[in-house]
Amino acid sequence: MAEETFIDNPDTALVVTDSTIDEAITKYPFIVVDCWAEWCGPCKMLGPIIENLAKKKQGEIVFAKLDVETNPQTTSKYGIRSIPNLLVFKDGSKVGDVVGAMPEDKLLERINTFK
Amino acid sequence: MYDIIIIGSGPAGLTAGIYASRANMKTLMITSAFSPSLITTTDLVENYPGFPEGITGLELIELFTRQAKRFGLETVEKDVTSLSRLTGTKSTGWEITAGDDTYRASAVIIATGTEYAHLDVPGETEYTGKGVSYCATCDGPFYRGSDVVVVGGGDTAVQEALFLTRFARTVTIVHRRDRLRATAILQERAFANEKIRFEWNAVADEIIGDTVVRGIVIRDANDPEKKKTIDAEGVFVFTGNIPNTAFLGGIVEFDDAGYIRADEWMQTSAEGIFACGDCTKKLLRQVVTACGDGATAAFAAEQYINELKGTSYGSWTTPRG
């Protein structure tokens, strides 16, 4: 059996890639994947907010981040055309996305609508 | 209680932060609701003195932030929802509600900037993130070899259209007038770029597509019956700005478009509230003018606070009535 890549109740945003994202969305019942890139200013602003939420919502919502530049398969599979873009997965399937940077409370409100 | 609270973290707010911190004012910057500053989405700033080769908006903001923090500026990421005047007899100032917290300060500097205006046409909201974008530097790389449209004719529209030519096959600028408003050097570059095409006197009518954007319907500004469709995988909207000032309704005076009226001291109609940068009524909204405003606002706030404390140096007098 392959070694488990992801821990049970992370309190930071996990790094996922083209090859590990499926494992992550299968393992966690509710996971938000922040698709970002180095070139994107608003993504960098959103980064600390995601980390903060990962800590606050530990055990409730899992957060992960995916660099779109080095993970073209996922980017194309989910038709990502704008970043920052948060993909929301519930029980292994994509249930929604949140596009654009926004304040922490608004972001959480949007994420919670997919719960 | 802080001496000064700055709301907003773009060039105006950060410059105010540098000046206030260096003046040893106890200063807090509340950043989140109005960040990221729009300048962070600009790929190249080449009219801010000191950077002869130009600099990206994001790098510039990182430098401003580092400089402000070096002088001890305290920051908190919160979303400001309201401001109210402190009613106690002991202290003059303002109470700011942000999330579940409240903060108090003798003076407030508003530096909340603007956000991009939307087209308000069918398809725009539906296709946001699926081909409609307000950030070329964020999303340009997704359009390698594609045909894209830029709506707008000002500096931002033309600058970002030029940036998009690095990735796109063609960039069509759709502009409601028969000439660009952008500064001369940007116009020259755009006219010389063989990837850039123009649709003059053209107004966006509808954004169309299936699961993603496939094109934009435009109409003739002079003859609304004359419509045509431009095939495009991306539509970038740079048609203007809206000031982030709604939360100040009833507190400070605005012009008709919602920009804050401030005098030469950057003082607003409300005592103790100063405003600077793009959110104010002014002729030219640029990084360099925002920085100038920010410095003035911080200096004026400092004088105001010194007068409140009775520690004013010499004969500074503010022009307040």
CATH superfamily of chain A: Glutaredoxin
- The CATH superfamily of the largest domain in chain B turns out to be FAD/NAD(P)-binding domain
**Remind me, CATH topology of chain A?**
Glutaredoxin
Overall residue-averaged pLDDT value of chain B: 92
**Biggest beta sheet summary of chain B:** 7 strands, mixed
Unreliable runs of chain A, pLDDT <50, ≥5 residues?
none
Strand segment count of chain B: 17
Give the gist of this structure:
Chain A has helices at 21-27, 41-56, 72-77, 104-112; strands at residues 14-15, 30-36, 62-67, 85-90, 93-99. By secondary structure, chain A is of the alpha/beta class. The longest helix of chain A has 16 residues, at 41-56.
Write the layout of secondary structure elements.
The complex is a heterodimer of chains A (115) and B (321).
Chain A: E1 14-15, H1 21-27, E2 30-36, H2 41-56, E3 62-67, H3 72-77, E4 85-90, E5 93-99, H4 104-112
Parallel strand pairs in A: 1-3, 2-3
Antiparallel strand pairs in A: 2-4, 4-5
Chain B: E1 2-7, H1 11-22, E2 27-30, H2 57-70, E3 74-76, E4 80-85, E5 94-98, E6 101-110, E7 114-116, E8 132-133, H3 136-139, E9 147-151, H4 155-164, E10 170-174, H5 184-192, E11 196-199, E12 202-209, E13 213-220, E14 227-231, E15 234-237, E16 241-243, E17 273-275, H6 287-309
Parallel strand pairs in B: 1-2, 1-6, 2-3, 6-17, 8-15, 9-10, 9-15, 10-11
Antiparallel strand pairs in B: 4-5, 5-6, 7-16, 12-13, 13-14
Helix pairs in contact in B: 1-2, 1-6, 4-5
